[in-house]
Amino acid sequence: MKLSIAILSAAASAATALHLPVSIFSEEAALQRQFVDTSKGWLNEFLGNNGETIDNLAGSSEVTDNAWDILKGDPKKFSKFTTILEKFSPTAIDHIKDEKDFTLFVPTNDAIPDHKHKHKHNDDDKNAYLNADIWEDPVPSVLGKLYAMADKVDMTQEDDECKRRLKKFIEAVVMYHTVAQKLDINTLHDFSTIETILKEPNTFNGAGQRLRVEQQYVPPATVINHYAKISTQNIQSANAVIHALDHVLIPPPSAINALFIFAREFSIFTSALQKVGLAEELDLSLDGKTGNGQLTINAPLNSAFERLPPKVLGFFFSPMGSRALRHLLEYHIVPNNAIFVDFQSGEQAKSVKSDNDDLFHKKIKASTMLEDGGEVEYDLIKSQTVPYGPYTFDVKLQGKSVSWHDGISRNAAFQVLEELLMPPKHDHNGINEADVDDEWAWIQSL
């Protein structure tokens, strides 16, 4: 599918079923509020001139019972979504009608919030709804406003910039809900993450933004991006598989912003990154020209830092400890490669021969930001506890299972750690080797 677009996203990835502390994830509604609240800022940035929109698709012949026909045939479930597309983005409809063999996640009517406007729409106030204020809301709320105004706005009277913004926004939403292969519910469970057709400049080596797939057992559910549950699965059409969602999917933010959202879990890590000047290097500009477009961040929880003796933690954050702290942090970051269980964006990671190497167990080494021997080793594991049963996924780093694997962000993969990684002592980057060795020997003796 020939689709690409620039987008600053508005959410952060977090897990509900693994080992992260319950405090963040105990209430789905609270988690969704975090996603929604942090989406308010990205629209004004995203709706600039970066990126492209959906190309005109070749061929206009309609197929009986194609994906669009199926959605239109179920107004009780999908009327908000179809009304928004009909009014504001006909090219997105062409995409749903004409593309072949794809998967479409569609937010139901309940997923798009109702909006009651306060102003009448008349000739003197024709922009009462289509003005800059609409983009200050979270993504689901914007969709709710668009639905509420669909029968009140005359698009022929709106200016070209307004039309461009609406078209670009809606097409971005549709692209992040689209996967370029047919995946029924059982096949979805074969993946830890899947690629959408929403692409950003200079990210993931040209691959699309990703969705994280999670199988919840109690109660049974398939969850996308940790908060959107598939409410109706395997809706068949001639050209696509459709899965209905109870929440709108919001693309994730850049790596550093994703960490900032979960301050309760990563505030020490983010403070450390800011202290040594690494935070900007983990970010990515909208045009993709500054920052790093593909990273793996082995992110230590606050509890990992709190395992350190108080005087060691105090030293790291003292004026004298900045060099050692940067040394430590660089060992937790793999540049130029986003490493997930079932996807790698770069070629820098190298396979390591192992008796366990097969389709479901890949062992690789990757260079960190720490120069001169700063490598880490990953075991990427996809396994079945029983033959033909569901797959489970695991990532081991330096031989230990991570606390939570395959977190997504706009430009990075996250592997979350409960313990800090101990970097090698040597750093030949313009620093006296003896001083570094003495410094780390002192720290390790505390």
UniProtKB/TrEMBL annotation:
Signal peptide residues on this chain, from the entry's feature table: 1-17
Record domain FAS1: where: 65-249, 253-421
InterPro entries: Adhesion/Biosynth-related (IPR050904), FAS1_dom_sf (IPR036378), FAS1_domain (IPR000782)
Organism: Wallemia ichthyophaga (strain EXF-994 / CBS 113033)
Presence of the UniProt keyword Protein transport in the record: no
Domain of life: Eukaryota
Alphabetically ordered keywords of this record: Signal
Protein name (record): Transforming growth factor-beta-induced protein ig-h3
SUPFAM superfamilies linked: FAS1 domain (SSF82153)
PROSITE patterns in alphabetical order: FAS1
